[in-house]
Amino acid sequence: MKKYLLMAIVASGVLFAQNTETVDLKKNMQEMEVALAVIQRGFLYNDATLVEGGVRSLQAKAKYIEPPQGKDAEVFGESNTYSFKYAKKQSSKIAVLSDEIWSNFKKGEKYTAMSRYKETLKQCLACHKKIRKW
Question: pTM for this one?
Answer without folding.
Answer: 0.76
